[in-house]
Design goal:
6-stranded parallel beta sheet, 245 residues, binds 6-phosphogluconic acid, alpha/beta
Length: 245
């Protein structure tokens, strides 16, 4: 990925500020062009700073929340009130504090058995689909990356030949819930803009391999994210970006 758009910030605060500006810009462009803004949220700790900023002025009122619809890139199979729920995280930090319409918040139903949650979300994707696809072309997708190179819930050694847009996954990572549901690269890669938010020294080596190493998507699933007709922006803190060659 030699020509990757990589932006390095002092810390998560600076990174979150940059991400807020990109969110505002992406929402404006989408609403001007298509009358709505479809955004996919990520779980993990890194986007919390961004979610918090978006819930506050000046960003809160720079976004047309009534024309915004949110989705999730992945979810842990827990109830929506569980501390580990990605939905709960975004609700608590961001969505409860902004005038988004309830019917525009589209969570993955982590409380269902994985196969049912997958079918439910795949059906939802189909309901929003763009011509020629069984899912929408999202305006903005937020993604994180784990120290093992996973992104969303696409973990090392997972099947790369899958054709389904939504998948059930079982994987252990940092004591987080192992059963998960994730969108697949098919959906991510048709997005208009993808923003990776990556912080922390523990990710530095793997991040350099993802960006500059050979293509080994089984080992580094983040390499599977390559938008077909959209852009990808890497927002890193200095620690995560410290090994980039
Ligand atoms: C999840 C995520 C996952 C996350 C990475 C990075 O549900 O856990 O969507 O892919 O983005 O694990 O997490 P941190 O931001 O906490 O490092």
């Amino acid at each position: 990925m030699t020509n990757a758009d990589i932006r390095i910030f002092k810390d998560n605060n600076e990174l979150s500020l940059a991400a807020s500006l990109l969110w505002v810009e992406s929402a404006r462009e989408a609403i001007n062009a298509r009358g709505r803004f479809l955004v996919v949220l990520s779980g993990g700790n890194t986007p919390s700073g961004l979610y918090q900023l978006l819930a506050e002025e000046p960003y809160r009122s720079q976004i047309d929340w009534k024309k915004t619809s949110v989705f999730w890139g992945d979810e842990r199979c827990v109830s929506p009130t569980d501390e580990a729920s990605n939905y709960r995280q975004a609700m608590d930090i961001l969505l409860r504090h902004v005038p988004i319409l309830k019917e525009n918040v589209h969570r993955i139903k982590g409380e269902l058995i994985p196969v049912d949650a997958v079918n439910d979300y795949a059906q939802l994707m189909e309901g929003f689909s763009d011509p020629g696809l069984t899912w929408p072309r999202f305006d903005l997708v937020l993604l994180g990356m784990g120290a093992d190179g996973h992104t969303a819930s696409l973990f090392p050694n997972s099947d790369e030949t899958e054709s389904s847009p939504v998948l059930a996954v079982s994987a252990h990572y940092q004591g987080r819930p192992a059963q998960r549901v994730t969108l697949s690269p098919h959906i991510f890669n048709s997005a208009r803009t993808i923003i990776f938010l990556v912080t922390g020294e523990d990710k530095a080596d793997v991040l350099n391999s993802v960006l500059n190493g050979s293509f080994m998507p089984k080992r580094y699933p983040a390499q599977r994210i390559q938008p077909k007709d959209g852009k990808i922006i890497w927002l890193l803190d200095e620690a995560a970006g410290s090994k980039i060659t």
